[in-house]
Amino acid sequence: MATERVEIRKAHLDVRRAGRWPGVRWGRLVVVGAGTVVASTIANVLVAQALVSLLQVPATFRSLQTASVAPLTVIGVAGAVIVFAVLARLRPDPVRAFTAVATIALVISWVPDLLLYASERSYGTTLAEILGLMSLHVVAAGIAVFLLGRYGFRPREA
């Protein structure tokens, strides 16, 4: 009886794992994840500096300043790397699943920016500044989806 239970559990686990890509190279994912965080942060800081110059954003609008952009990008992209790692463990096609999750997260990430525009409109915050801020989310998401999807996951050879 106990042997039958063990065999049933093994069969159940084999069925659940059948769709997954076995043998994820976690070391590779860590390296690519760290590179994704660094690349996204550098890109966002450069884009933010360009936007500040181009739009002549006043220093009082701190959301586009490097001191705000860099740490928030690190946190957001590190979260994306963790989500990708979880999906690599749980989903049979983690790249496709991550692209869908990242797209939804991107749209959700714009909500605080739109609320900032609505709440600080009377203080001189312009739509261009908010759209610039929202573009930083697109830059980070695009880099994360590309780098993690392209290089973050290679199944081991069977």
Protein traits:
158 residues; mainly alpha; 5 helices; 78% helix; 0% strand; elongated
Question: Would you kindly provide a written description of the structure presented here, covering whatever features stand out?
Answer:
The protein is mainly alpha-helical and 158 residues long. The chain has one domain (2-151). 78% of the residues lie in helices and 0% in strands. It contains five helices and no strands. It has helices at residues 2-18, 26-55, 66-90, 94-120, 127-151. The two termini are 33 Å apart. The model has no long low-confidence stretch (mean pLDDT 85).
Could you write a compact summary of the structure shown?
With 158 residues, this protein is mainly alpha-helical. It has one domain. Helix content is 78%, strand content 0%.
Q: Secondary structure elements and their pairing?
A:
Elements: H1 2-18, H2 26-55, H3 66-90, H4 94-120, H5 127-151
Helix pairs in contact: 2-3, 2-5, 3-4, 3-5, 4-5
